[in-house]
Design goal:
Number of helices: 7
Distance between the termini: 31 Å
Bound molecules: S-adenosylmethionine
Order of helices and strands: EEHEEEEHEHEEHEEHEHEH
Strand content: 25-35%
Oligomer: single chain
Shape: elongated
Helix content: 25-40%
Radius of gyration: 21 Å
């Protein structure tokens, strides 16, 4: 007896929309989305897809009306409640644009709840374009099945980050000069993972971070990882040890 295929099929296109979703709601797509469904995916009136609005979960919808550069959807029913993602924030020193884009895409896939670009003394990066990073996070969420988007904060200085942090949120400082093993240091609960720029943190920055309340330095192994690798390695390790990769 062939297995009953999953419903809705995983192959349905998936789009983020800014219109709040509910049963029977009508959603006007933007020109880019209309072009994608109509011309790239070659879908017409009646075709089904999945949509999410970042807060109410995932919904099944169908194309109700289509014109040259416009398309209207009708929402049928909710297919998934919004997922609960671990309360993990990622503070990273922005690097070159392509690497930062890659970092945001992968951090979205890995389940980061909030992304915080941090300008440190040795940060060498072009201006952080939040709109661009937001679009990259949306595309990654559409692809990986998230229904809740990561929040992307305005860039801040390391000083601002340390002074504005709620000490209840444990600070995990990835330090290539040594720290605790992630296997023991990472514990479930609100977390802020901090990684440095290509040039690393200066000694006075390192001192200020290590002196912060509820902060622990962690090692990501014996090799010096590139900044974007370190950020994602720390996030993946957290998800495995204390996040939603654990079999509850
Ligand atoms: N300053 C270093 C150097 O040039 O020798 C390299 C900095 S590394 C490219 C960038 C950041 O990644 C570091 O500031 C740290 O946060 C993190 N990192 C890299 N390798 C690490 C490791 N093995 N353990 C912990 N953190 C690491």
């Amino acid at each position: 007896m062939p297995a009953t295929p999953a419903w809705p099929p995983k192959s349905l296109p998936r789009l983020f929309v800014r219109t709040p979703l509910s049963e029977g709601a009508s959603v006007e797509l933007d020109a880019g989305q209309a072009n994608y469904l109509g011309n790239v995916m070659r879908l017409g009136v009646g075709a089904e897809l999945l949509v999410f609005d970042g807060s109410s979960g995932e919904w099944l919808a169908h194309i109700a009306d289509a014109g040259k550069k416009r398309m209207t959807l009708t929402v049928e029913r909710r297919t998934r409640e919004p997922e609960v993602i671990p309360d993990v924030w990622l503070a990273f020193a922005p690097v070159k644009r392509t690497q930062t884009d890659w970092l945001v895409e992968k951090a979205t896939e890995l389940g980061a709840a909030r992304l915080l670009p941090v300008i440190t003394q040795r940060t060498i990066a072009e201006r952080v374009k939040l709109e661009r990073l937001g679009a990259i996070a949306i595309e990654a969420a559409e692809q990986c099945g998230r229904t809740v988007l990561p929040e992307i904060a305005e860039p801040s200085s390391l000083k601002q980050l340390l002074s504005s942090r709620d000490p209840e949120r444990r600070l995990y400082f990835a330090d290539e000069e040594g720290g605790d093993s992630v296997a023991t240091a990472f514990v479930p609960g609100p977390a802020l993972i901090l990684t440095g720029p290509e040039g690393g943190f200066t000694d006075d920055e390192r001192e200020a971070i290590r002196a912060a309340p509820n902060a622990v330095a962690v090692s990501l192994g014996p090799r010096i990882l590139r900044a974007e690798t370190a950020t994602l390695a720390a996030l993946a390790a957290f998800m495995a040890v204390a996040g939603d990769w654990r079999p509850y």
